Amino acid sequence: MFYILALFFFSLIYILMAKITYITHDNKVHSIEVQNGLTVMEGAVQNDIPGIDADCGGGMACATCHVYVKEEWLDKLPIKEDGEEDMLDMAFEPKKNSRLSCQLVVSDDLNGLIVNIPSKQG
Question: CATH second-level architecture of 18-116?
Answer without folding.
Answer: Roll (3.10)
